[in-house]
Amino acid sequence: MRKKVVRKICKKHVGTKIKLNTRRKKMDKLQYESIYGYCRVSSDEQAKHGTSLAEQKKTITKMSMYLFEREPDGFYVDDGISGALDFYKRPEGKKLQNVLEPNDVVLVAKLDRLIRRLSVLCSVRDAFNETNIHLFAHDILGGAESISTSNSPNVNMFVNMMGTFAEWDRE
Predict the structure, then answer these.
(1) CA 133 to chain centre
(2) How far apart (Å, rounded) are the C-alpha atoms in residues 70 and 105?
(3) Which end of the chain is more exposed for a tag (fewer CB within 10 A), N or C?
């Protein structure tokens, strides 16, 4: 019975974590702090074939409005930077890292816009998880669940598979 109640609440408040205190039957919403969008293209050809920076920003803004009912607080854009490069060695990735604080949110239109190597994905996801930074990717579960702080083995497996495909596609 309780699981059904939690599911209904989670669907109603997509993107908001909810804790259920079983002794008091009380719900507490945990608020997210700042919301940032991250966009990347590595070539002009990519920009022409549907992954343009403008399209990524549009997708991220829509996702932010849907999940959090507000626009992102800022965008970090790496134009002409390879996704195989370590996230923290990219100019805007480094800037983003410097402003992130616990409970902040990073939104990406597609996981492969963030990374193109599985090892980079694992290091970013682990670093975000350790500092309680929430990463949402529109192409993973419709962006409805944080992929950096999820405790679900299914989500973690799916994210790893998507990271593997992103690396394979790059090669």
Answers:
(1) 9
(2) 12
(3) N
70-105: pLDDT as tens digits: 999 999 998 888 777 888 889 999 999 999 999 999
The backbone torsions φ and ψ at residue 50, rounded to the nearest 5 degrees and listed phi first, read: 95, -5
Of the candidates 23, 31, 28, the one whose C-alpha atom is nearest the C-alpha of residue 2 is 23
Matching residue, tokens 């994905």:
121
What does the alpha-carbon distance between residue 40 and residue 16 come to, in Å, rounded to a whole number? Answer: 26
Reported confidence tier of residue 140, pLDDT bands at 50, 70, 90: confident
DSSP for the chain?
A: -HHHHHHHHHHHTTT-EEEEETTTTEEEEEPP--EEEEEEESSHHHHHTT--HHHHHHHHHHHHHHHHSS--SEEEEEES--TTS-GGGSHHHHHHHHH--TT-EEEESSHHHH-SSHHHHHHHHHHHHHTT-EEEETTSGGG-S-SSS---HHHHHHHHHHHHHHHHHH-
